[in-house]
Amino acid sequence: MTDVQSILDRIGEAMQATKDRGTVAQYIPPLARVDPAQFGMAVAFADGRLFSTGDAETRFSIQSISKVFTLSLALGRLGDAFWSKVGREPSGQAFNSILQLEHEAGRPRNPFINAGAIATTDAAMAHHAPRDFLAELVQFVRAAAGDEDIHIDAAVAQSEQATGDLNRSLAYFMASHQRLQNPVEQVLGAYFHQCALSMTCVQLARAGLMLTGAPGAPRLMSPARRTRINALMMLCGHYDASGDFAFRVGLPGKSGVGGGILIVAPGKASIAVWSPGLNAQGNSKLGTEAAEMFAQATGWSVFS
Amino acid sequence: MTDVQSILDRIGEAMQATKDRGTVAQYIPPLARVDPAQFGMAVAFADGRLFSTGDAETRFSIQSISKVFTLSLALGRLGDAFWSKVGREPSGQAFNSILQLEHEAGRPRNPFINAGAIATTDAAMAHHAPRDFLAELVQFVRAAAGDEDIHIDAAVAQSEQATGDLNRSLAYFMASHQRLQNPVEQVLGAYFHQCALSMTCVQLARAGLMLTGAPGAPRLMSPARRTRINALMMLCGHYDASGDFAFRVGLPGKSGVGGGILIVAPGKASIAVWSPGLNAQGNSKLGTEAAEMFAQATGWSVFS
Amino acid sequence: MTDVQSILDRIGEAMQATKDRGTVAQYIPPLARVDPAQFGMAVAFADGRLFSTGDAETRFSIQSISKVFTLSLALGRLGDAFWSKVGREPSGQAFNSILQLEHEAGRPRNPFINAGAIATTDAAMAHHAPRDFLAELVQFVRAAAGDEDIHIDAAVAQSEQATGDLNRSLAYFMASHQRLQNPVEQVLGAYFHQCALSMTCVQLARAGLMLTGAPGAPRLMSPARRTRINALMMLCGHYDASGDFAFRVGLPGKSGVGGGILIVAPGKASIAVWSPGLNAQGNSKLGTEAAEMFAQATGWSVFS
Amino acid sequence: MTDVQSILDRIGEAMQATKDRGTVAQYIPPLARVDPAQFGMAVAFADGRLFSTGDAETRFSIQSISKVFTLSLALGRLGDAFWSKVGREPSGQAFNSILQLEHEAGRPRNPFINAGAIATTDAAMAHHAPRDFLAELVQFVRAAAGDEDIHIDAAVAQSEQATGDLNRSLAYFMASHQRLQNPVEQVLGAYFHQCALSMTCVQLARAGLMLTGAPGAPRLMSPARRTRINALMMLCGHYDASGDFAFRVGLPGKSGVGGGILIVAPGKASIAVWSPGLNAQGNSKLGTEAAEMFAQATGWSVFS
Asked: What is the uppermost EC class here (chains A, B, C, D) (predicted)?
């Protein structure tokens, strides 16, 4: 499939030439220090073929993309009972907004806004210690990617912890409505570490294959569950810019503040793109543009 | 394709046997009087095949489903300039909420909430009289459906007008932010009549073919525009239950308070379902259930 | 009481010397044209003594100050039943916000925010024509002021009408919750004209005497009603800057976007101040400063 | 002044006969266990006279009434610089709402809603340890009341701590906006203990004398500061029922969830009333009724 490689080459060149690369996240030093000149992209197929361009082998902090993996674990543990804890509607608010929690009795709208992700981590933990949950999570991601060399970046986790007061506020708010089963500080500890998972585009693209349902892809969940996680990524994966991503790219995706985006082309392939500079909505600027170019070139939008 | 017919038969039987049929919309007498026992469904293919079950030839008020047609006209007239007037994000609020307008300077979040639909009608009207716009709209729907026997129900339009104070409030709010180009009462007149379009499931399914992009379907807009309208239907087509519909059905859809839902299976077919009783979110209760059964039976979810 | 005159003289000089005079309201031409260099103040006692400084005999548009008079009429007509229609709590929002209406089923929080004032006008009108209500209102204000030369400025009323879409939005919102008994356009017509009452500081100070309860003041309502109107002015009279006015001045007051403020010193006197430039909260900048100087100089704060 | 005593006697009898005594706060066991049959009231004059009725010598948890004392300390420490940290406007929201914080960058609207009170405690602490701040606070209240027998109820403080997740959420939200100078848990520790101050009506009435400005009252702050604290109590002292209290009672007051209310009649006397059952707004039901009867009987409303 020389086609995909030539598309990636073209995208890589275009991105290299782009001057406005967005703004690197500033809220923790390990992210603020990342060089905005970087750009990488990888496309993985279930039959093992992998195409890439740019810094596709450079590790970056996947941040909120980890929410997809935790959601998979939580659904695996609770099944549909999970949805009594967390909703599945777009919030119409910023990723870290607390407004909706007050209006809806502390129940977060979906698993991808911060509050919902914290509640999802709480559910996925069951009553285990954070370290046991994290071990299981890392193991799950490694199995999905078929790569043992995936780790949590302790320095990033520690920085998150040090600046996590808004997430603490969200968590205590939910706790005040009896929405969490574990002690708040333990849930947050697990959550901050989960966000500090460090992966390359190649690893991330491979890990996303489980969501494609393509023949030969790792089957880590039922087709129904896979389908529904894709639906959630489409509806809520880019916070309050999810509509824009669906409009421009037309594929389920989940972004992270580290500049990565995981994109699923159901039945076809899994795509990971990374560039640390963010647009005004907090999603990777070049990553979004690259995803749009890729979707147009391949015609892979689920809506066409 | 006896398959589709047998699926429809099965759905028709299941729906007939369902006791809890939801609640028929009460806000205007012509809707409140509709018999909740009715259920119809039709599936149209681009090659002319059409399958149906139940009351698929009974006319009903398509209400908000008309917003899809008006959006098509507005985009045809303005192109991407349209998006300076209306956003494309889910609102996280009820279909008739005014909160978001106050927070975002009178710019509605998407073309399918009431405020956004009114702004879309205003854009589609250009500076024509309501009657000229309505003539164009009806002509467009007839062309899409390949059926001249499609009309606006004057009694329904008049009832909408008589009870439309909340829509008036939305429209004047936008006008106070200079968001409308036509006089408010003219925009509302056009909007109330547009919502009063009366169609059968068969007609509606055929009219939806233009959005499938299936070979042979009427081509009334560019592929890019078609794809994007589908994306908007997926993200915002069921108001604050769009996430739920995406999760359960996995296909772009647009519901109306009259109990109809238009569903697009890109590349495959167009589906219309109708049953007047609504669920708590204001969408057809049996319609949603039938759509879910259909998507599961066919495996047509765009996310699988 | 040469004391009051010398206080006013001192204030008048200080205000004349003030360079930052705020910004004159721009939303209608008749207000935008007013010369910001003007400042007037008058203090009326129940025994007939009247002290003044500056442009105290110049007419200005009293705008929202008229809400005090309409509230008096509405309470006169309905008694405590009025409070089933309108609340009496500060809103914590801008004077023209619609948010609270959506959260509280269309019932405005108090009679002084725009929505509440429109509902109050509706109540005061009973089922009379706008012109009859307005005749009664003007008569009431003239009686309170003991001055027949008080009129509605037709040009201002017409301008309000032409730019009143936000007030229309508020009114239709309330109508959609069955909160108004008269047709919306009639209520608004009455409301726009009421706001266009034109008075001088001297007239306004005299008209406010009825709220002082001082011996000899016109008794146009029961002591209990008078006391309660003062309480409402204190809590809600300056919209979302009521706390600031209470903190700095310590007297019940009602401001208008024309730059006027009516202030009541219970048991003592009635004060009117006017300067057209507004501060960031939409209240007269110099008027507020003058009121603060006056309250400090006299020690008349109700809280001391 | 047998007058006041006979008024209190009449109120005491009326309250004893009242069947609907409201609902005792349930959120912590020490409050939930309090007998709702109790009612006490005390009126203190600056010349030492003290009148009382009912359970005026029974200790109760003053809860949010303590916010008045902490505010006094914070203003004493910071002067007007305090107002850069906390606003002075009614919030239009429940006492524990977090909405306003999100809309206004973490700056609480006034010192009496929970968020504002936590910020006030933080300011009053300066950089001292909680125990030092609490020692100073208790000393201040004892000095105001002229009574050494005033203490913090450790069991109540501990219960507050155990159920304080919503307050934690508020505090961490403010911390995320750099609004607190002390570690969150220390501020909260101080806050929970401050709310657990235990006093009788007699002690509380005497402690309130400092706010009356009556000749002979303890002078613990400047007249200007005293006046302004009264203004804040009037505008914000009963959360989202402050308008109602001003309307019905017409005197500055501060309520607590323990069922107490401290009321100031400027220039005249200080009143404390207590009955543990709360009304729908979370203020003492009988306490409010008694305050209204007292204000009507004495004519002490500041608005008359």
From this structure: hydrolase
Asked if C241's CB is within 8 angstroms of D235's CB, the reply is: no
pTM above threshold 0.90: yes
Say yes or no for a CB contact (<8 Å) between B99 and C102. Answer: yes
d(CA D41, nearest CA chain A) in Å: 34
Count CB pairs under 8 A between chains B and C. Answer: 56
Give the nearest partner residue to B227 out of A241, A244, A301, using CB atoms.
A301
**Residues A215, A280: contact at Cβ < 8 Å?**
no
Distance from CA of A158 to the nearest CA of B (A): 33
Residue ending a domain, choose from A168, A197, A226 = A197
Spell out the alpha helix ranges (H) of chain B.
2-17, 29-32, 66-78, 99-103, 114-125, 130-145, 154-162, 165-176, 184-195, 201-207, 223-236, 242-248, 285-298
CB contact under 8 A, B169 and C165: no
Asked whether the beta carbons of residue B170 and residue C169 sit closer than 8 angstroms, the reply is: yes
User: A75 and A169: one domain?
Assistant: yes
- A12 in the same domain as A92: no
- For residue A166, the chain D residues in CB contact (below 8 A) are 172-173, 176
Q: How many domains does chain D have?
A: 2
Q: Is residue C52 part of a domain?
A: yes
* Chain C 159-188, residues with CB within 8 Å of chain B CB atoms: 165-166, 168-173, 175-176, 184
CB-based contact (8 Å) between B227 and chain A?
yes
Taking the Cβ of residue A99 and every Cβ of chain D, the question of whether any pair is shorter than 8 Å is answered with yes
Distance CA C251, CA D80 (A): 20
Q: What is the dihedral sign for C-alpha B81, B84, B90, B93? A: negative
Q: Nearest-CA residue of chain D relative to A170?
A: D169
Judged by phi (left if over 0) then psi (alpha if -120 to 50, else beta), residue B23 lies in beta
D86 and D193: one domain? yes
Of D197, D212, D236, the residue at which a domain comes to its end is D197
Question: What are the distances in angstroms from CA C17 to CA A164, C10, C20?
Answer: 51, 11, 9
D75 shares its domain with D189: yes
With beta carbons under 8 A apart, name residues in chain B contacting C168: 168-169, 172, 175-176, 184
Q: Does the beta carbon of B223 lie under 8 angstroms from any beta carbon of chain A? A: yes
Question: Under an 8 A CB cutoff, do A98 and D97 touch?
Answer: no
Tens digits of pLDDT across chain A (304 residues): 459 999 999 999 999 999 999 999 999 999 999 999 999 999 999 999 999 999 999 999 999 999 999 999 999 999 999 999 999 999 999 889 999 999 999 999 999 999 999 999 999 999 999 999 999 999 999 999 999 999 999 999 999 999 999 999 999 999 999 999 999 999 999 999 999 999 999 999 999 999 999 999 999 999 999 999 999 999 999 999 999 999 999 999 999 999 999 999 999 999 999 999 999 999 999 999 999 999 999 999 999 9
Q: pLDDT digit string (tens) for D137-179?
A: 999 999 999 999 999 999 999 999 999 999 999 999 999 999 9
d(CA D136, CA C63): 50
Domain coverage including residue A77: 66-197
**Cβ proximity of D198 and D62 under 8 Å:** yes
- Kindly state whether residues C242 and C135 are assigned to the same domain: no
* DSSP string of A258-291, one letter each residue: TSEEEEEETTTEEEEEE-SEE-TTSSBHHHHHHH
Distance (Å, whole) CA A128 – CA B113: 43
Distance CA C224, CA D197 (A): 36
Beta-carbon separation of D97 and A102 below 8 A = yes
* DSSP percent split of chain A into helix, strand, coil, nearest 5: 50, 10, 35
Q: Are residues A164 and A206 in the same domain?
A: no
- Residue B85 in any domain: the answer is yes
The CATH number of whichever domain residue C290 belongs to comes to 3.40.710.10
